[in-house]
């Protein structure tokens, strides 16, 4: 029996509750068929081989800071696919297809949360658009990379994902470390926004072992998840409040921390975020420095992340103005032509690094 008192206890700050579709329903409507599932598995294996240095190519996670217009993202994917094919001897290209944006304070939280870009929060539509695009990008022949932010959304989309990230703002969170321990793909742990690398190293260790925690299963039913641990965790250096951490000295320091923790000595360098001061024009500078480290024989750098879209820069989400096609509404991105130049330069440096290694007998 409810009374005014019992009614007044719960959900006092919940304005509305709207039913959410289940993961199983979304999978039913938008299935990952057998050929696409094979492509996802091949992508994950390829990433794993680069991380383990069984493959001497460079992992490149490249694409928009966030997807807000699936048509533009798909056009981008078409261009990236051609570049990825051309450079596939040296680069393993994964497209950033980011739908969940962690905000420093407030702001648009990504296409899953708000697909209409107007605060209406139609998550059902957001999930549907996101899964459709993920399948489309896979069909084009590119593995996809996502940040996992919400602990519920992975059941809706994670089957399509070849590489995942836990972001700088959530890397210390037990919820996200547990989540990573159960995710099926390699997960990059970013250093904290204040620059703490030790926190990301802790996250790799925490996600590397089994956990038990409440979650939802694919039918949407509350479930107790018993995970196996994720052995493919790795560090992503994205710079911090006190400056960048992509330089050779920072990389060496990060590799030392990993060694001391008994973890594989491998890092991915994020050329954007605090490594570029969010100025897209600095991403090529970071990439050149990384390329020089590779050419000098640094094998600890296994990958790089670039924020890139069709058009350079960024634009504000302003409801009174039409958005410019192919331009980021979150962080500033490299434009396409510059992206191609950066990718070509990285491929050269991978060849130079290969030349520094002894030829196998
Ligand atoms: O990658 C995107 C942003 O850097 C991240 O979401 C934080 O953005 P904000 O500081 O503008 O909120
Ligand atoms: C939010 C992101 O990065 P970070 O967590 O490093 O700020 C991102 O890569 O979109």
TrEMBL record:
Pfam families: DAHP_synth_1 (PF00793). The keyword Transferase applies. GO terms for cellular component: cytoplasm. The keyword Oxidoreductase does not apply. GO terms for biological process: amino acid biosynthetic process; aromatic amino acid family biosynthetic process; chorismate biosynthetic process. InterPro entries: Aldolase_TIM, DAHP1/KDSA, DAHP_synth_1. GO terms for molecular function: 3-deoxy-7-phosphoheptulonate synthase activity. Residues 53-343 form the DAHP synthetase I/KDSA domain. Its EC number is 2.5.1.54. It catalyses: D-erythrose 4-phosphate + phosphoenolpyruvate + H2O = 7-phospho-2-dehydro-3-deoxy-D-arabino-heptonate + phosphate. PANTHER family: PHOSPHO-2-DEHYDRO-3-DEOXYHEPTONATE ALDOLASE DAHP SYNTHETASE (PTHR21225), PHOSPHO-2-DEHYDRO-3-DEOXYHEPTONATE ALDOLASE, TYROSINE-INHIBITED (PTHR21225:SF12). Belongs to the class-I DAHP synthase family. NCBIfam families: aroFGH, PRK12755.1. Stereospecific condensation of phosphoenolpyruvate (PEP) and D-erythrose-4-phosphate (E4P) giving rise to 3-deoxy-D-arabino-heptulosonate-7-phosphate (DAHP). This is Phospho-2-dehydro-3-deoxyheptonate aldolase. It comes from Micromonospora siamensis.
């Amino acid at each position: 029996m409810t009374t005014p008192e019992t009614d007044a206890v719960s959900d006092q700050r919940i304005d509305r509750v709207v039913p959410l579709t289940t993961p199983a329903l979304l999978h039913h409507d938008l299935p990952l068929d057998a050929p696409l599932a094979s492509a996802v598995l091949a992508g994950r294996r390829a990433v794993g081989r680069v991380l383990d240095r069984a493959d001497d190519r460079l992992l490149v996670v490249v694409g928009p800071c966030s997807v807000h217009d699936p048509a533009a993202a798909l056009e981008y994917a078409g261009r990236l696919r051609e570049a990825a094919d051309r450079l596939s001897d040296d680069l393993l290209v994964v497209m950033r297809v980011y739908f969940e944006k962690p905000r420093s304070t407030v702001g648009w939280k990504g296409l899953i949360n708000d697909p209409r870009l107007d605060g209406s929060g139609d998550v059902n539509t957001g999930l549907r658009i996101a899964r459709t695009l993920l399948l489309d990008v896979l069909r084009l022949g590119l593995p996809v990379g996502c940040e996992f932010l919400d602990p519920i959304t992975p059941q809706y989309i994670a089957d399509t994902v070849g590489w995942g990230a836990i972001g700088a703002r959530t890397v210390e969170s037990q919820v996200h470390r547990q989540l990573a321990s159960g995710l099926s793909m390699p997960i990059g742990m970013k250093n904290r926004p204040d620059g703490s690398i030790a926190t990301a190293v802790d996250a790799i260790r925490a996600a590397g072992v089994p956990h038990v925690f409440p979650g939802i299963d694919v039918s949407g039913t509350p479930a107790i998840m018993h995970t196996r641990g994720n052995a493919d965790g790795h560090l992503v250096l994205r710079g911090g409040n006190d400056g960048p951490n992509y330089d050779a000295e920072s990389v060496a320091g990060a590799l030392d921390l990993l060694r001391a923790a008994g973890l594989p000595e491998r890092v991915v360098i994020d050329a954007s975020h605090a490594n570029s001061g969010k100025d897209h024009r600095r991403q090529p500078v970071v990439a050149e420095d990384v390329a020089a480290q590779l050419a000098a024989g640094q094998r600890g750098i296994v990958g790089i992340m670039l924020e890139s879209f069709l058009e350079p820069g960024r634009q504000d989400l302003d409801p009174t103005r039409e958005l410019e096609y192919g331009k980021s509404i979150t962080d500033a991105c490299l434009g396409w032509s510059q992206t191609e130049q950066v990718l070509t330069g990285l491929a050269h440096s991978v060849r130079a690094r290969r030349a520094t290694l002894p030829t196998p007998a």
